[in-house]
Design goal:
Order of helices and strands: EHHEHEE
Number of strands: 4
CATH superfamily: Holliday junction resolvase RusA
Distance between the termini: 25 Å
Number of domains: 1
Shape: globular
Strand content: 25-35%
CATH architecture: 2-Layer Sandwich
Helix content: 25-40%
Number of helices: 3
CATH topology: 60s Ribosomal Protein L30, Chain: A
Length: about 130
């Protein structure tokens, strides 16, 4: 399944339960998570797709095209933000991702593509 997320992805921010509401960066991250989740839900609904259950090995490929400075945040925090937003929408648990590729580049607009593939049947992992 291939997904396209339009707009900036706010990278993962470490936060406490309290700072989740008090810290501006944490609030922006939370809003970004809601936006990504909404877009993923719409695409799942349009494709008439079902969430991938736990126990199914996954391969995920992510391509982030961003406007402005490319190295303003860590790529791994952007990946974490996207995977966290996809959890319980696209797949039940990101612990079953066994293959992950990611790249980022400068683009004319902020757009991210994510491809999720099943690489094994339920219970194939040891």
């Amino acid at each position: 399944m291939k997904f396209t997320i339009v707009g900036k992805i706010i990278p993962y921010v470490r936060m406490t339960q309290r700072s989740k509401y008090a810290d501006e960066r944490a609030r922006r991250y939370g809003q970004s998570q809601k936006n990504i989740g909404w877009q993923l839900r719409q695409q799942m609904r349009y494709a008439d797709a079902q969430m991938i259950d736990r126990g199914v090995r996954l391969a995920v490929s992510i391509r982030i095209r961003a406007t402005g400075g490319l190295h303003r945040w860590d790529l791994d925090n952007g990946i974490k933000a996207l995977l966290d937003a996809a959890q319980e929408i696209v797949f039940a648990d990101d612990r079953w991702i066994d293959r992950l590729t990611a790249e980022r580049s400068i683009g004319a607009e902020d757009i991210t593509t994510m491809t999720v593939e099943m690489i094994g049947a339920r219970g194939d992992a040891q």
